[in-house]
């Protein structure tokens, strides 16, 4: 029997999948292996576009679970008993209006275990360490495949990486915030990126580059052509520090990070550069953004293990120093982290 398994801000997910495209709710022959995601039109269109691109990637199902089919529906197509728990649709359904448009998307079901929970539940420490390194390598490859297609996932967090027990590999899901980045070599004008940066909030899994560049693109705090000031730089730094970030670093590491941040960005204020100048310099390092989010996911996972393993400590220290706390130009790429894991950590743990 179909039930609500996720109730997000943009829509709801049901499993087994349902066919809402024919004007009624009906089960499908392959319903147990798929989910149905019902969203407002505007929040689904980008995910559908990204899904079409991902499906062109060879062996994409080994890494991703994108939208594979969709259709337009209205609330009048929906069974109240089924969707009454979906908060984002309750008000629309109560009005029973044909004008309330939604999109129903079909997505492969990849299991019920987020990767971090699966790893934390492995009792054998050697097997757990091996799973950490192997899954990280797999996801680095996945993110590189997205990057090769100019896709930034933008929402890589523990809840969006599921462990597929059938294939025994992690799968990236939920491309609702994902975007195809404009080529910075073609255009680096901040106004061209307003649709790319969906918001300018401090989000746990976004690096400081994204936070700064989104503010420049939205021009809510300052104009792109205005001169960079130290006060604004200091303000951005203070606003950037989210709870997840602070939980993973020590007070001393935050102080060191603050010094490096000032050393890195103060030159723009000192040289009376504009925010547009800063934008054009920093946007070049977009290829490290999903790597930052992925490193944060693994640091978060490892922080819950209460392990004293020297190899794990070496690994987490590397991720903190060279990804989490690194300035844009110094932040390691996906390939560099992959090389580190393969070359510096025990081959026995990775095999």
From TrEMBL:
Residues 1-341 form the Protein kinase domain. Pfam families: Pkinase. One of its GO terms (molecular function) is ATP binding. InterPro entries: Kinase-like_dom_sf (IPR011009), Prot_kinase_dom (IPR000719), Ser/Thr_kinase_AS (IPR008271). This is Protein kinase domain-containing protein. It comes from viral metagenome.
